[in-house]
């Protein structure tokens, strides 16, 4: 395939104002050329118009290069460096410094200059090598939660989260998918997905309105999957934010997170997906957003099905490649269909003294049951508007452990469970639950909603509790060994009517 003259030129070392590693590599997508030169990568936009993006003029390409730089510096500041002009000087083409154009130069394109990173450090490659660790997933969850709290919002951005706007996006998905019925998905799948999304949107409009009013629609990433995350100098970098379409990036934070959650589940790592979700929810405090996950996970998988299926219309792709693409598209459509199916919710109450292993066991249980684990330590700090990674002693004006704050915390735990359980979400309430008056409302809720309940009473010898609390570091919980005696004395035994729910656990 012939390449434009400037592309051919940028494959030679003379086109760059710095030393390069030869041979210069050229990567192509349907919307860009990427030149790998050693220390730096240069991304040039193709003059394409696909409806959802329009790069047909030089002015547009400059604007979207600047947008790409602005947006990606939020999450990958170490990778995104500058927008630089590509100029023609006579019959030569080269990359120039914006403030030092050669005499007689004509700007013919623009490029986003980036730090080149080792492709083996892409999370998709690390995943294939089984090197995406729980620690990396927790780092991702925390970083994304912080990003969504700080990302820009405005009345205009919030409009993209209106029920009408979301319905339009989903209806576009259905319209696009219709041509692949019988090829990548069955008529039954197509009808079931459409019925599910239509019903969800019609019955839950107030949820979307509340998300708008609560400032949850933000200028997010928009394309958050493992191939757009890497390690650079030991730090997680989330890159390639969508710059070309506001509709795709001005979204609910939980919809942004749902893409990575779906990606991990699609790759059959439900354990990592659950760890990511619980880390993100804990650090964002956005447990209410989890009610939207069935819809948003379905839509994310549906979009990936469409993206893959569209390649079947490309005459340049071989039959063998199309067979693989069709299988992948079918797998995504199948995943979208599974997200429409109702799930049986369960309720777990972790119970016991500080240091007894409630959160550790709760985490294992969450991954086994694909449950949402809600820790009282996180909820308490969110209610007090304190950062999770700071001690309450840093804020002497706040009485974090007053009776009033404790009551408020347990009421909020119960409210989250009452919200999530009817949506088929299994919930783990993780707190001491050391008093009958705190346990009884949870039991009453399980009976009211007709969901199974288990109380996991965690215990350990006093000397082990003391050792654990003395050694605890880097956790959001603040209990210290001097509280053990008081907690033991005040713990109220289980009533006979509670005992059938209790599972005694010694960790």
- Helix percentage range: 40-55%
What Rg do the Cα atoms give?
26 Å
Question: CATH first level of the largest domain: which class?
Answer: Alpha Beta
Q: How many beta-strand runs?
A: 15
Portion in strands? 15-25%
What summary fits the major beta sheet?
6 strands, antiparallel
What features would you describe in this structure?
The chain has 507 residues and is of the alpha/beta class. The chain is built from 19 helices and 15 strands. The chain has helices at residues 5-9, 58-72, 123-128, 134-150, 155-159, 163-177, 187-203, 205-213, 246-249, 253-266, 270-284, 293-310, 319-339, 358-369, 376-383, 403-420, 436-449, 462-471, 484-490; strands spanning 25-28, 32-36, 40-45, 80-89, 92-95, 106-115, 217-219, 229-232, 235-238, 250-252, 347-351, 372-375, 427-430, 453-459, 502-506. Helix 12 (293-310) packs antiparallel against helix 13 (319-339). The model has no long low-confidence stretch (mean pLDDT 95). InterPro entries: Aminoglycoside_PTrfase, Cell-binding_unc_protein, Kinase-like_dom_sf, P-loop_NTPase. Pfam families: AAA_33 (PF13671), APH (PF01636).
Which short descriptors sum up this protein?
Aminoglycoside_PTrfase; Cell-binding_unc_protein; 15 strands; 507 residues; Aminoglycoside 3'-phosphotransferase, Chain: A, domain 2; 19 helices; five-stranded parallel β-sheet; Rossmann fold; six-stranded antiparallel β-sheet; Tll0278 protein; alpha/beta; single chain
């Amino acid at each position: 395939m012939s390449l434009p003259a400037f592309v051919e030129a940028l494959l030679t070392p003379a086109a760059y104002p710095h030393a390069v590693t030869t041979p210069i590599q050229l990567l192509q997508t349907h919307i860009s050329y990427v030149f790998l030169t050693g220390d730096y990568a240069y991304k040039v936009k193709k003059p394409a118009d696909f409806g959802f993006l329009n790069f047909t003029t030089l002015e547009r390409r400059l604007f979207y290069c600047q947008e790409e730089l602005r947006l990606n510096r939020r999450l990958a500041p170490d990778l995104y460096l500058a927008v630089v002009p590509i100029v023609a000087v006579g019959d030569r083409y080269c990359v120039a410094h914006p403030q030092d154009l050669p005499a007689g130069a004509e700007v013919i394109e623009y490029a986003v200059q980036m730090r080149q990173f080792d492709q083996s450090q892409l999370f998709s490659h690390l995943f294939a090598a089984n090197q995406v660790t729980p620690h990396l997933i927790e780092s991702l969850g925390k970083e994304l939660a912080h990003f969504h709290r700080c990302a820009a919002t405005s009345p205009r951005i919030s409009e993209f989260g209106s029920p009408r706007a979301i319905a339009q996006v989903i209806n576009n998905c259905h319209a696009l998918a219709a041509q692949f019925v019988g090829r990548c998905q069955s008529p039954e799948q197509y009808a079931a997905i459409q019925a599910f999304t239509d019903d969800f949107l019609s019955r839950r409009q107030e949820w979307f309105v509340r998300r708008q009013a609560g400032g949850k629609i933000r200028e997010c990433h928009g394309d958050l999957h493992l191939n757009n995350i890497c390690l650079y100098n030991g730090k997680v970098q989330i890159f390639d934010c969508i710059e070309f379409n506001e509709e795709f990036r001005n979204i609910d934070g939980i919809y942004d997170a749902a893409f990575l959650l779906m990606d991990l589940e699609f790759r059959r790592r439900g354990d990592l997906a659950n760890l990511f979700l619980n880390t993100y929810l804990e650090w964002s405090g956005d447990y209410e957003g989890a009610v939207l996950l069935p819809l948003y996970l379905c839509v994310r998988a549906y979009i990936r099905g469409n993206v893959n299926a569209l390649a079947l219309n490309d005459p340049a792709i071989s039959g063998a490649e199309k067979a693989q693409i069709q299988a992948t598209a079918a797998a995504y459509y199948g995943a979208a269909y599974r997200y429409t199916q109702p799930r049986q919710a369960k309720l777990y109450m972790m119970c016991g003294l500080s240091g007894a292993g409630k959160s550790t066991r709760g985490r294992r249980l969450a991954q086994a049951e694909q449950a949402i684990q809600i820790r009282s330590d996180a909820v308490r700090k969110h209610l007090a508007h304190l950062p999770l990674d700071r001690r309450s002693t840093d804020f002497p004006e706040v009485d974090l452990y007053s009776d009033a704050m404790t009551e408020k915390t347990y009421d909020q735990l119960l409210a989250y469970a009452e919200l999530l359980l009817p949506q088929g979400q299994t919930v783990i309430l993780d707190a001491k639950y050391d008093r009958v008056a705190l346990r009884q409302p949870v039991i009453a809720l399980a009976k009211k909603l007709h969901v199974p309940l288990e109380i996991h009473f965690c215990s350990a010898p006093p000397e082990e509790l003391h050792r654990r609390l003395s050694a605890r570091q880097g956790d959001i919980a603040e209990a210290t060994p001097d509280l053990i005696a008081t907690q033991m004395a005040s713990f109220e035994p289980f009533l006979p009517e509670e005992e059938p729910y209790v599972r005694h656990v010694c960790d």
